[in-house]
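Standup notes
- DV: blocked on the single-chain target, sequence here:
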Amino acid sequence: MTDTESLHRERLLPSWWVWLVLGGLVAMLSVAYGAALGSVVGWILAAILATIGASLLIVTSPTIRVDGSGLQVGRAHLPRWAVANPRVADRAEVRKLRGPGSDARVFTALRPWSSSSAVLIEVADASDPHPAWLVSSRHPEALRSALSATMAS
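- DV (later): unblocked, structure below
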């Protein structure tokens, strides 16, 4: 396997209901300002708010990639040799891992609107300030398998 050969890749775009909420907020503000200042202002505001909102949702959606060099989540990178014991965490375990009493040093890349499951990856580098990574995934078993394959190579 080469360093650039991708074993797993996914983008954590928001679910359909997040887009629906964005549309509702844009509509409410546009109608309110349109009623007060005129329909042209309302339509212009709708276009601007929809563009800004959609852009923010897309830009802040991280890409998860596993290849021969390791794991990359957004701009964060965990080298292959530092990946240890990846395992799938269900909704209850994710809640426990990010709730009161949890280790605040764990690197988290959670998008609850994208997925309720995640993968917990222990970090085998003692000098790393993060003992583990907790990463949302729509396909946690596939991500865990890709990480295990990367560790084996």
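- Follow-up: The mean pLDDT is 91.
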